[in-house]
Design goal:
By secondary structure, the protein is of the alpha/beta class. The protein has five helices and four strands. Strand 3, helix 3 and strand 4 form a beta-alpha-beta unit.
Amino acid sequence: MTDTPHNVLFICTGNSARSILAEGLLNQLGGRRFKAFSAGSHPKGAVNPLALETLRTLHIEDRGYSSKSWDEFAKEGVAPMDFVITVCDQAAGEMCPVWPGQPITAHWGLPDPAAVEGTEEEKKRAFMDTAVTLKRRIEFMLSLPMDKLERMAIQHEVREIGTRR
């Protein structure tokens, strides 16, 4: 691993909630060490308003997010990803594009907060619970001594993070 920022792509099927939250959180918490992006296998075309509200509640910029296809990150000329992390079970089982640069991959599956039915408060709580879990996982990832671990150790640790709540 190098001193340049590590590019991280968070993938979810619709790229409207979980992957957006993860992108915002890592860009906020990762400083200059990480640059996060998000995409979907079947993007919805719009970011869920509750995802943006959750980011605002966490004092994270809520502008500049879009629901886009993962194909944008597999194109020639795009900066290679160092990590590709799926955050929903459906995207984890789908046939992914070939990622340039052989990134470290992991699955950090979480229930879809956008699928929660109930009151507005229950929906907001689901988004916040998802964000809090993602924040913990990202903090675990940020605590890894990337410059001291071999690639296989990093791969193992990043995958293990997905089992933590």
